[in-house]
Amino acid sequence: MASGGLQLLGFVLAFLGWIGIIISTAMPQWKMASYAGDNIVTAQALYEGLWMSCAIQSTGQMQCKVYDSLLKLESTLQATRALMVAAIVVGLLAIFIAAIGMKCMKCMEDDQVKKMRMAVFGGVAFIIAGLAALVATSWYGNRVARAFYDPYTPVNTRYEFGSALFIGWAAASLALLGGAFLCCSCPRRETSYPPTRGYPKNAPSTGKDYV
């Protein structure tokens, strides 16, 4: 029962992490314009994401523009896109694989060993998805930080971390934690020994000798 509860907890955490990865990928707030300089402009907030750039006016109106050409984008942005999409696809496969290996599901009940292996494979897939999302968000965040502290970057073009980065970091952590729980939830297989053979008991002596 304890391993089943740990398995269910790992699946729920990994699933929530996968949902967070999707939300982070779709959000345009991967980086936001910094107003740390002398000329502070509060009339609008500028955001840039993986797919579009947005400007939010002080009235609350949002205007977004999708990037025109994929070939004109920076290589780091293209790589970040690819890693996040790969994390989503691998996470989707992990959901189906791990669901088959869950003890509460009736699939493959006749072979518990294969069922346990499916749960472990699903956990490994969740870990791969979490690592892909973690690398993508950390790489993008490192690029934003380097540009912010670069003295040659104009003050009015500096950006800070957006909320999508923090959601991506949290989602990647949940996917990694949930995948680790799935990998550790299966009990170890006990070594089975062949049953010992009983030796026939000697018949009690009657004290009579037969010729």
From TrEMBL:
Pfam families: PMP22_Claudin. PROSITE patterns: CLAUDIN. Keywords: Cell junction, Cell membrane, Membrane, Tight junction, Transmembrane, Transmembrane helix. It is found in: Cell junction, Tight junction; Cell membrane. Its main location: other. It is a multi-pass membrane protein. GO terms for molecular function: structural molecule activity. One of its GO terms (cellular component) is plasma membrane. The chain crosses the membrane at residues 7-27, 79-100, 120-141, 161-184. InterPro entries: Claudin, Claudin1, Claudin_CS, PMP22/EMP/MP20/Claudin. It comes from the Eukaryota. Claudins function as major constituents of the tight junction complexes that regulate the permeability of epithelia. Belongs to the claudin family. PANTHER family: CLAUDIN (PTHR12002). This is Claudin. The lineage of its organism: Eukaryota, Metazoa, Chordata, Craniata, Vertebrata.
